[in-house]
Each structure stands twice: as structure tokens, then as C-alpha cells.
Amino acid sequence: MAKIKIACLPGDGIGVEVMASAKEVLQTLATVEEDLKIELVDFNWGSDHYIETGEMMPEHAIDTLKGFDAVFLGAVGNPALIPDHISLWGMLIKIRRELSLSLNIRPARVINGIQSPLHSPRKFDFIVVRENSEGEYSESGGVIHNGVNEIAVQNAIFTRQATERAMRFAFDLARKRESKVTSATKSNGIVHSMPFWDRVFQEVAKDYPDVKTESIHIDALAAFIVTKPQNFDVIVASNLFGDILTDLAGAVMGSIGIAPSANLNPDGRFPSMFEPVHGSAPDIAGQEKANPIGQIWTAALMLDHLGHLNASKRIIEAIEEVTKQGIKTADVGGAYSTREVTNAICDYLISSAQ
Ligand SMILES: NC(=O)C1=CN([C@@H]2O[C@H](COP(=O)(O)OP(=O)(O)OC[C@H]3O[C@@H](n4cnc5c(N)ncnc54)[C@H](O)[C@@H]3O)[C@@H](O)[C@H]2O)C=CC1
Ligand SMILES: CC(=O)C(=O)O
Ligand SMILES: [Mg+2]
């Protein structure tokens, strides 16, 4: 197989630490997986770059990224120094928009060796398909007047094209799994976009008569993710609902620090981007406390997307072997550092190949 070229954007905070871990895992894997040839190219864009230059990424950044097979991102944000809407819209969301990464795929399942905080969790395995290009994440709106008269307007944009695209992806995915799609709605409170969302869901469902469907209000759905996560297979959600549900799903798995995600360019015109669900976690940055599993599992999603299914499986196997041995960071009840967990995963990749 040809060499795959990955643009690595560690970003800020623990993004830098977990990216170093995941790169080490990828490099180790490439020494034992015959077909896997990887070139990892670093770009140190992010908040430090903003402080030096006034922009999160240089002007040519998007064109540069288009020359890669995939983009691998850590996390962005240094809220003590830069307002989050500037740093995230200047990098994370800019990349999602300009590379047309209109779907965000976020799996959540029980990981061997990681205890869910739920009292007696049943085995669960679901995937959230998050619409990733519009919805509540929108630049439409503004702020006018000031003082007591100040008004902020934020418009949520729902187009038929993007809504239907996310739903069709969810139904196609469900057909390869347990054939059930749950739609996250809120048509009892949001009177225009959510009844539209429900209508498109019902229309698309007609093309998939073999797939079971249900529509659940996002508030109840959040509760059900806690009380019966085993009931879900594929959940399709708007940008904000999907964002919130997947931090919750991460927590139900055991920690937001283990949750992965793939931002897909569905027509393959541009590279897709892979990033963990979590952010830059300034509260633990620089302390060797960051769980590297979210970023490492995300590397597995990236390899899977690029056709390296075996290499991807080996990463997941290595993660679960190491967690089963109890080599875990503090967020999932362990006493090991980022480096120790990373080393253990790399060691397993080498020893299991011999
Ligand atoms: N994809 C991205 O680039 C994202 C960036 N952000 C940005 O990150 C910054 C911090 O945001 P927060 O809301 O605090 O969310 P966060 O996800 O960074 O952290 C939330 C909590 O989870 C913990 N946590 C997160 N990842 C962890 C890991 N790998 N291991 C162990 N614990 C972990 C943190 O220590 C913190 O207590 C902000 O600037 C925010 O805008 C937030 C989410 C996504
Ligand atoms: C910013 C963030 O948490 C997300 O879009 O996933
Ligand atoms: Mg998020």
C-alpha cells in the first residue's frame, strides 16, 4: 500500500501531550505492520501561534492541509489568554467548514478494563452521527445596541441538504450494525428547525423500511444515555445536540478522555479530520495526567478510514489489553501517567507482533 501522509496539528494544552502519544503509537505500529507506511508532518498552529501572529493558522493553512490524506488534530483552546470563539473558529471549526467535514462520527462503547461510572452498566455500543457543518454552530446573527438595550441574536441554520445527508449516513451505518436509528429532536420547544428535522427524518426513514426508528427529545435522550445506553445503535443529532451527547457518552464510557471522533468529508474531495472528543483541558495540562486513549483510539478511526483495517484493530486491541492490565490514568481510576500508558500500548504492539 502507498505511504499515507498525515498532517498532525497538536494544538493547545493536553492536545500536545496526547498527540505525542498517538504519534508514537502510529510510529510503533508502522514498525510491526508491514503494509503501513506513514509520514507524519507537524504543524504547530494554535493559541501560541495566535499570540505571536494574531492568527490561529497561517493564511495558506487550508490549502496545505488539502495536500494530505488525513488531518490529525489534538485540541484547540487556551481560554485564559484567548476567547474560545476566536481560537476555535480560527482553527477547529474553520478546518471543519473549509474542508467540508460535514459529518462527525463519534462511537461510544464499553472498553474492557475501564469501569463506567454507571451503577450497573449493561454492555453498550452506539455511534453518534453529528451534523457537523451548520445547525446551532452558525455565524448568522449579531449583537446590537449596548447596556440594558443590548441584544444578541444567534440563528440556527438547518438546510435540507445537510440534514438529509447526516440522516442518510446514519441509516446506511445502521444497516451495517443493529439496524436502528434514534433521532435527537426537540420539536416540543424549538418550533421551526426541529419539526423540520423530524419531517426530514420521517421522509428519509421511508427509504429504509428495514431499519427501526425512534425520535426522542434531547433532554429525555440525555437521561436515557445514562439509564439505558444499551438501547442505542446509531443516534443522529444536530451539531450542538451531538456535541453535548458525546461528552455525556464519553463520561458514561468512563471518561471524556477516552472518546474518539472522525470529522468526515463525505465525497472524499478533501481529507477528513480526526480528533478526540475532549478539549485542551487546561486544568491538567503539563502534568502528565492526560488520558491518551481518546487520541490513540482516534488514530485507529483514522487508519480504518484510510483502509488499514488490521492496523486499526491492533490499536484497539492494544488499548483494551493495557486497560485490562490496570495501566490507566487517574481519570479512569488508575495511577499511571500519560507516558506510562503510552509506553504500555507501544510495548504491547511490539510484543503481540512477535
Ligand atoms: N476539539 C477541540 O479542539 C475542543 C476544544 N475545546 C476547548 O478546550 C478548552 C477546555 O475546554 P473544557 O470545556 O474544559 O473541556 P475539556 O474537554 O478540555 O475538559 C473537560 C474536563 O475533562 C477533563 N479531560 C479532558 N480530556 C481529558 C483527558 N484526555 N484525560 C483526562 N481528563 C481529561 C479535563 O481535565 C476537564 O476537567 C476550551 O478552550 C475549549 O473551548 C473543547 C472541546 C473540544
Ligand atoms: C467545540 C466542541 O466541543 C466540538 O465542536 O466538539
Ligand atoms: Mg465538544
From TrEMBL:
Top-level taxon of the source organism: Bacteria
Limits of the Isopropylmalate dehydrogenase-like domain: 5-345
InterPro entries noted in UniProt: ICDH/IPMDH, IsoCit/isopropylmalate_DH_CS, IsoPropMal-DH-like_dom, TTC_DH
UniProt keyword list: Manganese, Metal-binding, NAD, Oxidoreductase
Enzyme class, broadest EC rank: oxidoreductase
GO molecular function (one): magnesium ion binding
A Pfam short name: Iso_dh
Enzyme Commission number(s): 1.1.1.83
Keyword check for Plastid: no
Record flagged with keyword Iron-sulfur: no
Reaction(s) this enzyme catalyzes, per UniProt: (R)-malate + NAD(+) = pyruvate + CO2 + NADH
Names of required cofactors: Mg(2+); Mn(2+)
Family that this chain belongs to: Belongs to the isocitrate and isopropylmalate dehydrogenases family.
Protein name: D-malate dehydrogenase (decarboxylating)
Biological source species: Jeotgalibacillus campisalis
